[in-house]
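TICKET: design request
STATUS: open
ATTACHED STRUCTURE:
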């Protein structure tokens, strides 16, 4: 399967972009969605969190108190390291399984920490959804109703804009109106179909070359 990695800092509009690719029939494996379900009720990961922090980490219904945990790990970096060590291997396992099960001409691996967690090694090409840091701050504060200091903490925990752009094969600028995204996605989709088809032909030829001679 030919894999397109899509990433962008918080508030960049990465999900909006991947939804546009999905409208073209492309499967999207979203690391954020998988990460959320890793800590669902009844999972071993949630049991480990409860054992470490007690019922303070839970809502009244027994589900994870995500706001409490988010504040905890931002205040105590060691706790963030512990949580990452618990969840990242589980997330990676599910990501790879979902990529293998994709059925579209190519598949998107969407991850805000694509660069930081070295998920680029699973990608044939990387697309960065880019905005200025000022846009990130404004959109995140409005969307998530969080303080400016918490937005800064989140941004500091992610790769810098420079680091993301250095890993990019393609860039979509999303500082402007959302209406400008669809034509950019359509153009890139055509390009990726061609690249995926070309890679598939190369793989097929390689497989044929490995077959024993029938003579």
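STATUS: resolved
RESOLUTION: sequence designed for all positions
ATTACHED SEQUENCE:
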């Amino acid at each position: 399967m030919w894999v397109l990695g899509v990433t962008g800092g918080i508030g960049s509009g990465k999900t909006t972009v991947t939804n546009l690719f999905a409208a073209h029939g492309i499967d999207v494996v979203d690391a954020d969605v998988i990460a959320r379900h890793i800590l669902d009720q009844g999972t071993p990961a949630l049991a480990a969190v409860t054992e470490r922090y007690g019922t303070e980490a839970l809502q009244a219904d027994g589900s994870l108190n995500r706001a409490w945990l988010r504040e905890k790990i931002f205040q105590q970096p060691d706790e963030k390291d512990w949580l990452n060590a618990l969840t990242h291997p589980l997330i990676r396992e599910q990501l790879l399984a979902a990529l293998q099960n994709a059925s579209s001409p190519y598949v998107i691996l969407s991850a805000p920490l694509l660069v930081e967690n070295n998920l680029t090694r699973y990608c044939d090409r990387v697309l960065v959804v880019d905005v200025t840091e000022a846009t990130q701050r404004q959109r995140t504060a409005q969307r998530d109703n969080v303080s400016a200091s918490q937005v800064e903490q989140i941004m500091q925990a992610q790769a810098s804009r420079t680091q993301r752009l250095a890993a990019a094969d393609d860039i979509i600028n999303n500082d402007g109106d959302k209406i400008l995204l669809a034509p950019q996605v359509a153009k890139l989709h055509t390009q990726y179909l061609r690249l995926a088809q070309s890679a598939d032909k190369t793989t097929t030829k390689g497989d044929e070359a490995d077959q024993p001679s029938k003579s």
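CLOSING REMARK: The longest strand covers residues 125-130. The chain is about 55% helix and 10% strand.
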